[in-house]
Design goal:
The protein has 231 residues and is α+β, with helices and mostly antiparallel strands. The protein contains 5 helices and 8 strands; from the N terminus they run H-H-E-H-E-E-E-E-E-E-H-H-E. Strand 2 and strand 3 form a beta hairpin. Helix 1 runs antiparallel to helix 2.
Length: 231
């Protein structure tokens, strides 16, 4: 993986800082070794001290500037890493919502028995909407049909079609989200369970600490829209 620009710049600046310090020390040592100050007059010594003091001040300012640049690069590098981390996190969240990756977490499992075949697409759609209102993040039926925003439901003589996937009774609805809230939404009077019961079906709700959903939604290619970067 290529080294980030900020990382390379930071190494260069650090190298310059070390080089500047090494140069200053070398110059000072050589002056101490090679110069004989015993022959200088008082005025000359004063001027020499002023020159050395000015040089030290310049070196100090350069060190301060390099240090500030280094600190700025470190901060920028950390900010860049944090932005990258957040972007990856957001991309993962969107992939889950789009149904393009598997997901796991706490939630509930609703098992629906329908021996009289009274459960239809409209009832399943109402159930899904109730679950979404209760905070469901990921929903799948019978372990094969991932339900996302663009999912549609159709009645079929053999069961119910969830977009392009046919699911048959008994139906299993796996839901990931806050388990307590989802369970309450499914079991309160007049809620999901009662709706299935009133139709002549039977529904049971099982709260679970972990549910894993591996079914993926069918990826749809846009027919009319194009990314602005392609124009």
């Amino acid at each position: 993986m290529p080294e980030p620009r900020t990382g390379r710049a930071l190494r260069v600046v650090s190298g310059l800082l070390v080089a500047a310090l090494a140069y200053a020390v070398t110059v000072q040592v050589r002056q101490d070794e090679e110069s004989d100050y015993s022959t200088l007059r008082g005025v000359e010594l004063v001027e020499l001290l002023k020159s050395i003091d000015a040089a030290n001040q310049r070196l100090g300012r350069q060190i301060d500037e390099l240090t500030a640049t280094r600190n700025g690069l470190q901060s920028s590098n950390q900010s860049s890493e944090e932005a990258t981390k957040q972007a990856r996190k957001r991309a993962a969240e969107l992939a889950i919502l789009a149904g393009t990756v598997a997901a796991s977490g706490p939630g509930i499992q609703i098992t629906v028995s329908d021996p009289q075949r009274v459960v239809d697409a409209a009832l399943v759609l109402d159930t899904v909407e109730e679950l979404r209102d209760a905070g469901a993040e990921v929903i799948a039926m019978n372990g094969t049909a991932r339900i996302v925003a663009q999912t549609y439901f159709l009645d079929d003589e053999d069961g119910i079609r969830v977009s392009g996937t046919l699911v048959k009774a008994p139906y299993t609805i796996d839901v990931i989200g806050d388990a307590a809230t989802l369970e309450e939404a499914a079991t309160f009077r007049g809620g999901i369970v009662d709706r299935f019961t009133n139709r002549g079906a039977a529904a049971e709700v099982d709260k679970r600490g972990k549910i894993t959903i591996t079914a993926l939604a069918d990826a749809r290619r846009p027919q009319y829209s194009r990314a602005t970067s392609d124009e």
